[in-house]
Amino acid sequence: MQHNRFLLYGANGYTGQLIARYAHEYGLEPVLAGRRKEPLELLSHQLRMPYKTVDLNDTQSLQTVLKEVQVVLHAAGPFQNTAKQMVDACLQTNTHYLDINGDIAVFEMLKQYDAAAKTAEIMVLPGAGFDVVPTDCIALSLKKLLPDAVSLKLAFAAIGGGLSHGTASTMVNKLGEGGNIRKNGKIIYAPLGQKGFWVDFGGKKLFVMNIPWGDVSTAYFTTGIPDIETYAGVSPWIYRILQLQPLFNWFLRTAAVRNIIKKKIDARLPGPTDEMRSKAKSFVWGQATNAQGKTASARLSGPDGYTLTTHSSLLITQKILQGNFLAGYQTPASAYGEDLVIQVPGVHREIIAELPNDLKTDKVL
């Protein structure tokens, strides 16, 4: 078994292709995989990489393919429909499981595999991309700055770029469903866009509103902070429109509306072009607060979400193949610490706290 080879499932998707294209920068050789032969065969020819055609519901064939590798990087969403089949097969073949999921429900489901993963001596680490590497690392940084924190706010925003088909389709499946926060350690319902405020991301002030981001699950696992809210950058006018959402959520949940939007998504480009990605930037901000009202804040900037996902997922894959992993369910920061994100090219982190000057910033060029 080659020590630089891993299975890239969903390789023909937008993010999967990016991961395949950049794998050589980490000395890795992906085996391209998915359920459709034609696009895989074309990609295999273009990148000169081996491929395997396998359906997730074909358990025996999936296990046969997984036995040939130590790690699978699962990039085929929507993960609410695909994660369980893959992780079940990984447990049977002692294969480490990574994905680029950002769905709270999927994180919570995979967390239930902790004991089984420890028995199999494998790591189950979802959220190895922009969902949730930068926010998870910020969360752990803030927990270490303020160990007695009782609440945590995390926000992200982007300038430029765009959405891939997969990300857009996942969002459509959540239309009209509302949102979630964590309160007193429990995940509870909270209307999407219920709260909004301006955030200084470091020379760039942007408006954010609450959304159900993956950290509602993962940041609690990483830090134990009982109250967690997550926010994303939006224009203020969209935020105002969403104040009316209780009136039309029922309409957004209908199959007819979702199918119309999905057809529009399918008519678009698969995702942002390389030029768009090169000009785009992503921003993350976090603030922890203790019972006495003391706060600690941090923020970071970096490449667009797809580029960051590509590098962070390959970085984690590389670490596992080098024998650097923790058995059981993990989050990116619980496995690799708060400095994982600054190993991604182009990421700059700033701790907004009264610290010695030499501890205030970290930068990777």
Structure description:
This protein is 38% helix and 25% strand. The chain is an alpha/beta fold. The protein folds into 2 domains: 5-128 and 306-337, 3-Layer(aba) Sandwich (Rossmann fold), CATH 3.40.50; 133-304 and 345-351, Dihydrodipicolinate Reductase, domain 2 (2-Layer Sandwich). Helix 2 (37-47) links the parallel strand 2 and strand 3. Helix 1 (14-22) crosses helix 14, helix 3 crosses helix 4 (79-93) and helix 4 (79-93) packs parallel to helix 5.
Number of strands: 17
Low-confidence stretches: 163-176, 354-365
Question: Over all CA atoms, what is the radius of gyration?
Answer: 20 Å
CATH class membership of the largest domain? Alpha Beta
What is the CATH superfamily label of the largest domain?
Dihydrodipicolinate Reductase, domain 2
Strand order of the largest sheet: 10-11-12-7-13-14-16-17
Helix content: 25-40%
CATH topology assignment of the largest domain? Dihydrodipicolinate Reductase, domain 2
For the terminal residues, how far apart are their CA atoms? Answer: 34 Å
Overall form: globular
User: Mean pLDDT, nearest integer?
Assistant: 87
Helix segment count?
15
Counting helices, strands and paired strands, the structural category is alpha/beta
Please give the structural blueprint:
Layout: E1 5-9, H1 14-22, E2 29-34, H2 37-47, E3 51-53, H3 59-66, E4 71-74, H4 79-93, E5 96-99, H5 104-111, H6 114-120, E6 123-125, H7 133-145, E7 149-159, H8 165-172, E8 179-183, E9 186-190, E10 196-200, E11 205-210, H9 215-223, E12 227-233, H10 236-242, H11 249-252, H12 255-266, H13 274-279, E13 281-290, E14 295-303, H14 305-321, E15 328-329, H15 332-336, E16 348-352, E17 361-363
Parallel strand pairs: 1-2, 1-4, 2-3, 4-5, 5-6, 6-15, 7-12
Antiparallel strand pairs: 7-13, 8-9, 10-11, 11-12, 13-14, 14-16, 16-17
